Structures are given as structure tokens and as C-alpha cells.
Amino acid sequence: MHSVIIGTAGHIDHGKTALVKALTGIDADRLEEEKRRGITIDIGFAHLDLLGPDGQVLRLGFVDVPGHERFVRNMLAGVSGIDVVLLVIAADESIKPQTREHFDICQLLSVRRGITVLTKSDLVDAETLDVVKLEVEDFLAGSFLDPKHSPIIPISSLTGAGLDELKRALAQIASEIPVRDSSALARLPIDRVFTMKGFGTVVTGTLISGTVRREDELELFPQSKRVRVRGVQVHGSQAEQAIAGQRTALNLSGVSTGDLARGMVLAPPSMFHPTSRLDVSLSLLPGARPLKDRARVHLHAYTFETIATVALFGAKQITPGETAFAQLRLAAPTLLLPADRFIIRQFSPVITIGGGIVLDAAPFTKRPKDHGPFLQTLAEGDPAQVLLARTARRSKQGLHLVQAIAETGWPGAGVERALAPAVQRGEIIRIGELLIHGHSFRALQSDLLAAMASFHQQNRLAPGISKEALREKLDLTPEILGASVNQLVQSKKIEVAGDVVRLPGHGVEMKDEEAESKTLIEDAFSTAGLKVPALKDVLAGVKVDKARAQKIVTLLLREKVLVKISEDLIFHRTALDDLRKRVAAEKAKSATMDVARFKDLTGVTRKYAIPLLEYLDREHVTRRGGDERIIL
After folding, report:
1. Could you give the dihedral angle defined by the CA atoms of residues 481, 487, 488 and 491, in that order, rounded to the nearest 10 degrees?
2. How far is CA 254 from CA 218, 261, 376, in A?
3. 280 has which bridge partners?
4. Could you give the CA distance from residue 173 to residue 161 in angstroms, rounded to a whole number?
5. 20 to 30 A from 158, CA-CA: which of 239, 246, 573, 625?
6. CA distances (Å), 407 to each of 399, 410, 553, in order?
7. How many Å apart are CA 358 and CA 365, to the nearest integer?
8. 328: which strand partners?
């Protein structure tokens, strides 16, 4: 079954609700006040099954919107996400103010298909109907509802005249609508919240992408609250799942009606982040006033609305009919993604003045100078170019795949498809789940080599720089440093010895007095056995200054010739190796050893015994058990 969403649009009292009822048999006016006043106040819903030209069952979901100027905000909550619009114009009144505003909104939201319906045709004679039709044709010329390719159908909801022709036209146009991608990441903008007896909390909306199944876990935005889907209804019938393009009702657990409101969005958990800033391409209607930088507007996107400040990029104002890049700073956070469309209305008086498309829902706080080309790529580039641009702006920090999914709204498979050609060409370097722009990767390798050269120049007595010190110096992630080092090792531009990295041909460069001091220091600890001297006493007897002497000790520690077991005690490795063997041999006599026995075995005082026993514990030679050590 192919699901298509049909939205009505038009002036108040032009017969939109009557038309929906005549087509479906369902009165979309559900509120008591609507029935009392005889006008539509909030969005209403109905559905109809038709057979397409090829015999396929078409499930048409109708969203009926109010036509009164006071309720345009409700109209906007319903018309976003529709596939086809029925532009309703009463034959006895022709084009009116909300006809024009609703039509502008449909164009700004990039609705591409529709049918113009001349209602109340029974109230006018044939000559008047022809005149109205000519006016409408002139009004729609050159638009997506141009009569050259989009029908204008007179009907009477009262007599039924023209309804069969309208149904045939609906079946034809609905069959031509591409099926929405049910494998995409699910998003359901909420338009109604209520409690149903015996079920609990229920929300409804048009599923704009993906699939939602019973027992799925979803996240509520912008609250970032987890909920579970207890039940699914599609067009009023129980279902195991809802797919993109269907009117959907979800019975939720883990949340109450007090936690929910129109404008919130349900999406997969741990995937997206709410945003208060949007980089957009913004278009102003030809009849609007110029829009100045920092102007406040009303923003409408799907069922969400808030106040936004328009920060223009490199311009003082947008002129009527112009399109420009801007950042919208929202008074309340929401979940929107690239390619989502929005409407802006003037702050006061509240009239529709423009709209546009979201380019980036995760803009950086500090905007780079060359931001224009980046936004141009997001607006016009193919998926591979977009992913390349998003990776490039992350510079040497790289872009994780989960970030790529969150920023683009593409599922993992979509990101992989866009990534493949860039990786093949070397434009993006892939390090596990991390992506880094090829230029940034090569630049950071140059920085890495320069940092190592500088280190060698300033540290003759060091065998090289540790990986961690190099990572901190260049502010790299461990993954990127590891990949850079590995590639440079393969190209023989650097060498690695354990945790130390050095340039080929570089190592410890000692003068004669430094080499002699190194021998003196090593001999002092080697001959002392376990009764080692204080480090300061050893350093006092060498021929170099204190700073160089300390670097020599650091070198010996790094080479593991000396081992530091506490803040004050350093031992030669041969003494500790001998100690390990002697303690292991004691196991034949007894599997346990107390401090007194250890002192007898080694001939050391308690000052040395306790730190040595703790060292043996760390080395898993012994394990402490109360006041004794168990020899392992």
C-alpha cells in the first residue's frame, strides 16, 4: 500500500473541510468550538483508499487546515510534510488574502505537486465559473500549480458534482509520488497529544521519515527523554509498524501527557541532539519588506514554532525576493536536520514573509571566515561533497561516524555510501570510526615531524619524545596520533622504540663529561644492591650541572636501567631482578612471608623493606594478605 499525505490550503469558508468530508465521509472538525462556530480552528485529519491507475491501493491521508488568518500558525503545523496540496478556492469568491498566503507557504515549503479545486461551483453560473477559472489560471501561471500541468477542477461538496473527476486526479497524482524512504532514520513531529481510556498517552503526527514499530524505544526532543512505543495505529487502524508518509498514532509508555506538546519530535535514541542555532538558506517573498540583520521573526518548522533572531552572513539586510545565508538563533531548542524546510513570519504584524531550508543544524559557535563556501557546498553539493566539507571543518580533530550521522541525518549506510569515493581518492582518511580530511592529516604529519625536530634540538640527552607528550603538544586524539605515527614509521620518516618516538638518526647525544656522569650514576646504584644511596648524594658527585644530571637519571629510568619504586627510592634493575628470584625461591620453604622474614632475607631496614614489598605486590611476585605476603 502506497501512503500519500494530502493537505488542504485556502481562505476561510472556502469549503476545505466540506471537501474533505465529501471525499472521505469523515468530518475533520473534531472540536466543539469548531462545530459551534462553523469554522476550522485546528488541524483535522481524514483518510481515503483509492485504486491507482495500475491497480495499486493508495492510502491517502488528509490534513485539513484552518483558513482564518488568526489560525495560520495552526495551518503551518499541518501543511509541513505533505506530499500533495489541494488549493481550495471558492467559485463565488475567487482568490482571497489567505489563498495567497497559503499558496506562498506551499511554495516556500517546496510542495511540488497539487490540484486546484474550485469549490461551491453550484453557487455560480457557468459564465462566472469561467471568469474565476481564468483569474486562477493567471494567478498560478509559472508555479508548481501551473494549469499547463496541474488540473483545476470545479466541484460541489453539496451536490457531488466533480468529485469523481477529483478522485481520479488524486489517484493519478498520488501514484506518481515517490515512496518515502522507510529505511531512513525515523522522525515523527507531534501534532496532537491526548489520553485514550484503556491505553494511556497517545501522540499523533505525520511520520516524515523511517519506520516506527511496536516496542521500539524512541527519544523525545528537545527533552532528550526516552519513551517506549506500546502500540501503533496508522490512519486509525492497529498496525505493527508505521512507515514514512503515513498518518501515525503512537501509544507511549514512560511519559505522560503533561510531558508532551505539539512541536516536540520523536526520533531514534542516542542519535541526535537538539539545537538552538541553525545555519540556513533564507528566501524572502517578493512582496515582503526588507529583512534586517538581527531582526526577530516567528519560525515554523513542521509542528514546531518559536521566536528566532536572524543573523545574516555578510549583509545588512535581505531585500524582497532575495535568497541569502543566515543563522537562525532560536528562543527554544528543537530537533531539525539538513534539508528540513521552514517558514518565517514577521514579528509584528504577524504575516508570512519568507522561508528556507536548513543547511546545518550543528554549527560551530565560532564561525570561520570562509563560512560562505562551506554553506554553498551544503546547499548545492552531492552527498560525497557534503561529507567532505563536514570532515574538513573538523580539521585535525576528525569527524566520528556517529557525528556524521547526527549532523547529516543520513543513516549509517548513507554515510558509508557518501564516504566510499572520498576514501578511495584519499580525500578522507578513515581511522576506524574516525574520519579526517586528507589535507588536515598531511598537515598534522608535517606538524608532528616539526615538533619532533624541535624536541631533539632542545633535548640532546633524551632518546626521543613520548607519544603522550607528543599528543598533548599537538592536541591530537589517540586514534589520530596512532594513525599518523604508524604511517610515518612505514614511510621510514620516524622510529618508535616502546613509547618513545624519534627521528631517524637522532638519539641521545652526550658530551664526554655527560657520558662519564651517566656511568658514575649507574655504578653508584649497581654496586649498592638493595641498600641504595639517596639520589641527591649521587648527583652531588658527578661533573655536570644539576639539570643535565637529572636528565641523565630520566634517561636511565626510561631505559629501565634504573627503576623508581617510590618518591625517594631508586634501584638498579639487576638488584631488583635478583630480589625477585630470591623471594620466589623462598616459596619452597614457606608460601607466606612477613616483614621480619623479608628483612632477614635481604638485610635491609624497614625504610627499604616496606617500599620493596609494595613493589613486589605491584609486580605480582607477592600479594598482601593481612600482615603477611603470599608468594605467588
Report:
1. 180
2. 10, 15, 42
3. 326, 358
4. 20
5. 246
6. 10, 8, 50
7. 17
8. 278, 310
Q: What angle do CA 168, 169, 173 make, to 5 degrees?
A: 120
CA dist 53 and 175 (Å) reads 7
pLDDT band at 68 (very low <50, low <70, confident <90, very high): low
First to last CA, the chain: 71
Asked whether the CA dihedral 383, 384, 385, 390 is positive or negative, the reply is positive
Phi, psi of 66 (to 5 degrees): -70, 150
The answer for residues whose C-beta is within 8 angstroms of residue 237's C-beta and 6 or more apart is none
Closest to 631 (Cα-Cα) out of 582, 593, 589, 579 = 593
Q: What is the DSSP letter of 146?
A: -
- Using CA atoms, how far residue 66 sits from 99, 247, 303, in Å, is 12, 18, 14
CA distance 95 to 288: 19
What are the structural domains, with CATH classification, of the chain? 2-175 (3.40.50.300), 188-267 (2.40.30.10), 275-360 (2.40.30.10), 512-631 (1.10.10.10)
What is the rounded radius of gyration, in angstroms, for the C-alpha atoms of the chain?
A: 37
The letter for the amino acid at 190 is: I
Average pLDDT over residues 160-183: 93
**What is the C-alpha to C-alpha distance for residues 236 and 242, in angstroms, rounded to an integer?**
12
CA dist 447 → 204, 403, 443, 583 (Å): 54, 26, 6, 49
DSSP conformation class of 39 = S
Cα separation of 291 and 288, whole Å? 8
Region 494-510: what's the mean pLDDT?
Answer: 77
Phi, psi of 450 (to 5 degrees): -65, -40
**DSSP H/E element including 164:** helix 163-175
428-431 and 434-437 as β-strands: parallel, antiparallel, unpaired?
antiparallel
Q: Where are the beta strands (DSSP E) in 11-127?
A: 44-51, 57-64, 84-90, 113-119
Q: Which amino acid is at 594?
A: D
How far is CA 169 from its chain centroid? Answer: 40
Residue 67 binned pLDDT confidence (cut-offs 50, 70, 90): low
304's CB contacts (< 8 A; 6+ apart) are 189, 263, 264, 265, 334, 336
Which of these, 360, 425, 437, lies nearest to 391 by C-alpha position? 437
Kindly state the helix (H) or strand (E) to which residue 310 belongs, with its residue range: strand 304-312
The one-letter amino acid code at 256 reads: S
Residue 134, number of CB atoms within 10 A of its CB: 11
Amino acid at 318: I
* 549 pLDDT higher than 90: no
What are the residues whose beta carbons fall under 8 Å from the beta carbon of 59, sequence distance 6 or more?
1, 2, 3, 4, 47, 48, 49, 235, 246
Average pLDDT for residues 436-445, to the nearest whole number? 93
